[in-house]
Amino acid sequence: MSIANKKEILDKLTATHTSKWEEKATWRQENQEWLIRSQEIALKVLHALRQKNMSQRDLARLLNCSAQHVSKLVSGKENLTLETISRLEDVLGMRLISILSFSMTIEVSINQPQHHIAEGHLINQAESIRARQPLSTSGAYFVDEQLEVA
Amino acid sequence: MEIVLIFAHQLYAFRYAGQTADELERLFDIWTDAGYLEQFFENNLSDLQNGYYGNITVAQAVKRTIYHARCLETDLRRLAKNDPESANNTLEDLFTPLDNREFGTIVLSKQKAYGVNYNSWLRLYALKIDPGVYIITGGAIKLTPTMNERAHTQKELEKLEKCRTYLAAQGLIDNEGFKEEFN
Questions:
Q1: Which residue of A65, A74, A106, A135 has the smallest Cβ count within 10 Å?
Q2: Which domain holds residue A139?
Q3: 3-class DSSP state for residue B121?
Q4: How many structural domains is chain B composed of?
Q5: Eight-class DSSP state of A56
Q6: Cα separation values, B38 from A44, B33, B43, Å
Q7: Helices A56-63 + A82-92 axis angle, to 10
Q8: What's the whole-model pTM score?
Q9: Which of A82, A94, A99 has the alpha carbon at shortest distance from A43?
Q10: Number of Cβ within a 10 Å radius of residue B54
Q11: Angle at the Cα of B148 from the Cα atoms of B13 and B94, rounded to 5 degrees
Q12: Does one domain contain both A31 and A84?
């Protein structure tokens, strides 16, 4: 069978609409940075649920939301608000993220070139943070992000 | 079932009855879903931790899967755009016969594509229509040496066969091909 004949048959069998895959793939690529953080948080939540022998339905009840909403939260595809993260931390009794405090920033400035502070940056280079972990005064660890997943 | 175009007379995917998404869309949806993956690896914990992939936790497996899916997806997008940075120049480089012993030209050959490298457990399964033209029938997270060891990979073998029979019935194999392939 010729290639032209096969193409003709394939064209007839093919639906008029195209796949949504490329659109979704583009979205995943464009939102990759926060998606990685969301996935990390989701995994922490799922691990905590298993440790506490809780179901997603139990979590939904504690959060006063639907099981479908919890399913979205733990998919790692939700752009979680600080409010949602705080509620999750509250009901699970654990920290999910920690944020650089002002005092930590001052401490970093001692060991790092002054231009970070002078330019008004609250340490926006991961290298600056990695260079001196952990912070002795707070005991906090910075893995490789400013917004650390605990 | 129906066939959905992915990109430019090169890559297609089946969409099965009862499913809202075609197989490529569905697979990347679940391969990037931390909740789905966590449950999958918990359900297949003994396969995950049987030693082949080393001492790995469920959380590590989830992150690894999402990373490999992202790499594979990036490569497919580059192929769709004929981007020279693609790890694979064409779909011919991405897909390989399902049966490692297959040689020569097989009509509607069953094919597989690995994740980012041969150590990845991600698989896309497809039927080869012509050189550079493939229809995806499904995919799997393959944790065992052979596909018929587990129900979820066995199902992918059945989908490949069902789709092949469907395409043959639609005339994508001529009489000569039928004689070669089915006799």
A1: A106
A2: 102-149
A3: coil
A4: 1
A5: H
A6: 11, 9, 9
A7: 110
A8: 0.81
A9: A94
A10: 7
A11: 40
A12: yes
Q: Nearest Cβ partner of A10 from B62, B66, B129?
A: B129
pLDDT tens series, chain A, 150 aa: 677 788 888 888 888 888 999 999 999 999 999 999 999 999 999 999 999 999 999 999 999 999 999 999 999 999 999 999 999 999 999 999 988 877 655 555 555 555 544 444 444 444 444 444 444 333 333 333 344 454
Residues of B in contact with A3 (CB under 8 A): 130
The residue segments making up the domain with residue B162 are 2-182
Among A1, A12, A21, the strongest candidate for a mutation testing the B interface, having the largest count of B CBs within 10 A, is A21
Do A51 and A78 sit in the same domain of this protein?
yes
Residue A6 in domain: no
Instruction: Show residues of chain B in contact with A68, CB under 8 Å.
Output: none
Contacts of A43 in chain B (CB under 8 A): 34, 38, 59, 62-63
Query: How far is Cα B124 from Cα B139, in angstroms, rounded to an integer?
Result: 4
Q: B113-159, pLDDT tens digit by residue?
A: 987 776 799 999 999 998 889 999 999 999 998 899 999 999 999 99
Strands (E) across chain B are located at 2-7, 11-15, 95-97, 109-114, 122-130, 133-141
Q: What is the CATH number of the domain that holds A42?
A: 1.10.260.40
* DSSP assignment of A86-144: HHHHHHHTS--EE---HHHHHHHHHHS-THHHHTT-S---HHHHHTTPSPTTT-----S
